[in-house]
Amino acid sequence: MPQLFPMNWNILTISFLSIMLLSIIFLHFTIFPKTNSMKIMWKPFQKTWKW
């Protein structure tokens, strides 16, 4: 399989994974806006960051 772009495979995979993650998060918040899942997600996040 020839490489179409002279790019690193590490950069390609990392960019692809980040785009997938962002799209999943975006879809999750558009389908379930401000429900209990948001509260459940924010509690451990605040505990780890010690706000």
Automatic annotation (TrEMBL):
The chain crosses the membrane at residues 12-32. It comes from Ornithodoros brasiliensis (Mouro tick). Keywords: Membrane, Mitochondrion, Transmembrane, Transmembrane helix. This is ATP synthase subunit 8.
